[in-house]
Specification:
Blueprint (H helix, E strand, L loop, with lengths): L8 E7 L3 E8 L4 E8 L6 H19 L8 E5 L2 E3 L4 E4 L11 H9 L3 E5 H12 L8 E6 L3 E7 L2 E2 L31 H4 L1 H11 L16 H9 L3 H25 L3 E5 L6 H15 L2 H6 L1 E4 L6 H13 L10
Parallel strand pairs: 1-4, 4-7, 8-11, 11-12
Antiparallel strand pairs: 1-2, 2-3, 5-6, 8-9, 9-10
């Protein structure tokens, strides 16, 4: 099984509530092949493991290498115990709660497996080959259905003692605000996610009777974004509020962590130009002057490959055989 002409590679998975993707990734971050399938969300853990294994086999088959992958990196939308390879709590896939996914995958594939929260993996990917490459201390904020976060301190993922660090979406920005699924209220997730953009637009619609959104029965966050690009006053106000609340949360992190860069990622980040100046304004008003001036706000560069590349990098780091290619 030794092919000196083929690059060493790992398998890397990004498991979502709807879709799963597995890729073969070389040491320099090149995605050699990938396979995608639907997550068996209404079935048990064994079916999800089987689907990941099937996608891994499909990806390896497309790769055509006779080499075995070195390891398997797994990025999942969950609170994880990465040291023990266990999913602690997964709101999107509750059947995976308390599942030792690393052991299950390792047993099925015959290679070591590394488990990480998907937002942490995205932060690692952006730090390796994306927007925060070359930066030792950075924050990656993922704006999607919710708000996720990953923190890199001195080149290492900061997980905290229980693995719950970087839950940026659950920083309180409005003490008496909207109730959140986490059990608290006023979390930034309720004001700066794609879901929040739609909610806020609906709540404010009566104050903007001339808005183009009033003619759409069930608009989406993308509809709000498109309306904002056309100068729609309701849509612009929604993004002002969304950016303001995100900026309040990030200003506190700037004072706490003194990062060099904050990367904004995720689907909702497509509206970057509509809210980033409001984010920057709040940071400048609320954070200490020197760290506020230092920190760069940058859009993510890797798109939906960030989690795959981050989990690949973590797999290489955990099971090195030679050195990982890096620009850092």
């Amino acid at each position: 099984m030794n092919d000196p002409e083929s690059p060493e590679f790992v398998l890397a998975a990004d498991l979502g509530g709807t879709n799963a993707r597995v890729a073969a990734v070389a040491r320099d971050g090149t995605i050699l092949t990938s396979a995608r399938g639907a997550t068996p969300s209404n079935e048990g853990p064994s079916e999800i493991v089987a689907e990941l294994v099937r996608l891994a086999e499909e990806s390896c088959g497309r790769n055509g290498s006779q080499k075995m992958p070195i390891a398997f990196g797994l990025a999942v939308p969950a609170l994880v115990d990465s040291a023990n390879g266990k999913i602690v709590s997964s709101p999107n896939l509750p059947q995976m709660n308390d599942v030792g996914l690393s052991e299950a995958i390792s047993t099925a594939c015959g290679i070591p497996a590394v488990l990480e929260n998907d937002a942490n993996a995205a932060a690692v990917g952006e730090n390796w080959l994306g927007a925060s490459n070359g930066v030792a201390t950075s924050i990656c904020v993922t704006l999607g259905t919710g708000v996720g976060g990953g923190i890199i301190l001195d080149g290492e993922v900061w997980r905290g003692i229980d693995g719950t660090a970087a839950e940026i979406g659950h920083i309180c920005v409005e003490p008496n605000g909207v109730f959140c699924g986490c059990g608290s209220r006023g979390c930034v997730e309720q004001y700066s996610s794609a879901t929040a953009v739609v909610r806020i637009a609906r709540e404010l619609a009566r104050d903007f009777p001339g808005s183009a959104l009033s003619s759409i029965d069930a608009f989406t966050a993308r509809d709000v974004f498109l309306a904002a690009r056309e100068g729609d006053s309701l849509a612009l106000e929604v993004f002002r509020l969304s950016g303001m609340y995100l900026g309040i949360a990030l200003a506190g992190l700037v004072n706490t962590l003194n990062p060099e860069a904050i990367v904004i990622a995720g689907g909702a980040a497509a509206g970057w130009e509509m809210f980033v100046h409001h984010v920057r304004s709040e940071i400048d008003k609320r954070a200490f002057r020197r760290p506020a001036e230092r920190v760069k706000l940058v859009p993510a560069q890797l798109g939906d490959a960030a989690g795959i590349l981050g989990s690949a990098r973590l797999a290489f780091d955990a099971h090195p055989q030679g050195s990982v290619s890096s620009n850092r």
